[in-house]
Design brief:
By secondary structure, the protein is of the alpha/beta class. The chain is built from nine helices and 13 strands. The structure holds nicotinamide-adenine-dinucleotide and uridine-5'-diphosphate. The site of uridine-5'-diphosphate has 15 residues, from helix 5 and strand 8.
Length: about 325
């Protein structure tokens, strides 16, 4: 049996946030979902609105907020390159002001707080697969820097609040995660390819498609986040969460064409600047400390995601 807690999920109307809220509501917690609806939507959480243990707050995390909670999951931040580069200064503000405001809140009300960090802190990695001990290879002044450096500085703030103010923190570094409720236009590769395949548009492979990514299904990721929040206080991370299965982007395009029976053609477009060439998590730490390992393989996860987009498009 779980003890019921008051839990704040920032970015709760987004892709990952809505799945996390759903899971926490099911577990009987009192869930406060905070979002400014930049990339999140009410549709993602509409099935939760009628639940007595779910509440929604429209708020921009760049501004402070005062709430009484026991735990905070800090997810607010656009995650797709198209969205975080739309207003890069705002992305930096969300990462940093958001972290400061949530850490200040955690300190004041003595809440435990988990940061949704990212594999992007490793930049274009020269160490493969990436372990938590790797410090990364990040361009500080490029197009992706608002997100990469914003997330790196947020990690710094988490660890400094922990050392300086004894805030009870957890940091997870999330690798590419996909599943139902991804925004159809958010530009991320899995949603782009599925929507293109289902609507018969060209599949836009950037570069020659030889760059790799490791794709984690959303349910696995949420399980990992919840385990990390519940980990003993000595283990604060950072810990990688992701599926170590590694695929080239071209392989992903071909798999989606096959699975959807699409007649779409693959077309090659220029590789965006600073696009990492390879990415694969070393999850030994999560396995050891959280007994966590992803269960859903790429084809099974894609099947569920394709069904979601099919229903949305038809
Ligand atoms: P998403 O864009 O679907 O969700 C982000 C949510 O934050 C949205 O609902 C958005 O409206 C909200 N938001 C943005 N700026 C805000 C602000 N200033 N104030 C309040 N709300 C704000 O993206 P996601 O994939 O669900 O990602 C959630 C978190 O996980 C992000 O912090 C992201 O960096 C991290 N992450 C995700 C992935 C992934 O593959 N999905 C990988 C690494 C890290
Ligand atoms: N990508 C692609 N076609 C698209 C969208 C993305 O080839 O329509 C590539 C992109 O260049 C990158 C990979 O897919 O190499 C993953 O991109 P995404 O934006 O999903 O995530 P990230 O680059 O942040 O890992």
């Amino acid at each position: 049996m779980h003890l019921q807690k008051r839990i704040l999920v920032t970015g709760g109307a987004g892709f990952l946030g809505s799945h996390l809220c759903e899971r926490l509501v099911e577990e009987g917690h009192d869930v406060l979902c905070l979002d400014n609806f930049f990339t999140g939507t009410k549709r993602n959480i509409e099935h939760l609105i009628t639940k007595p243990n779910f509440e929604m707050i429209r708020h921009d995390l760049v501004q402070p907020i005062f709430l009484e909670v026991d735990e905070i999951y800090n997810l607010a931040c656009p995650a797709s390159p198209v969205h975080y580069q739309y207003n890069p200064v705002k992305t930096v503000k969300t990462c940093i002001m958001g972290a400061i405001h949530m850490l200040g809140l955690a300190k004041r009300v003595n809440a435990k707080i988990l940061q949704a960090s990212t594999s992007e802190v490793y930049g274009d990695p020269v160490v493969h697969p990436q372990k938590e001990s790797y410090w990364g290879n990040v361009n500080p002044i490029g197009l992706r820097s608002c997100y990469d450096e914003g997330k790196r500085c947020a990690e710094t703030l988490f660890f400094d609040y922990h050392r300086q103010n004894r805030v009870n923190i957890r940091v997870v570094r999330i690798f590419n995660t996909y599943g139902p409720r991804m925004h159809p236009n958010d530009g991320r590769v899995v949603s782009n390819f599925i929507v293109q395949a289902l609507t018969g548009q060209d599949m836009t492979v950037f570069g020659d498609g030889s760059q790799t990514r490791s794709f984690c299904y959303v349910d696995d990721l949420i399980e990992g986040m919840i385990r990390m929040m519940g980990a003993p206080d000595e283990f604060i991370g950072p810990v990688n969460l992701g599926n170590p299965g590694e695929f080239t982007i071209l392989e992903l395009a071909e798999t989606i064409i096959r699975m959807t029976g699409s007649t779409s053609n693959i077309v090659f477009k220029p590789l965006p600047k600073d696009d990492p060439m390879q990415r694969k998590p070393d999850i030994a730490l999560a396995t050891e400390k959280l007994q966590w390992t992803p269960r859903v393989n790429l084809e099974d996860g894609l099947k569920r995601t394709i069904s979601y987009f099919k229903a949305m498009i038809e």
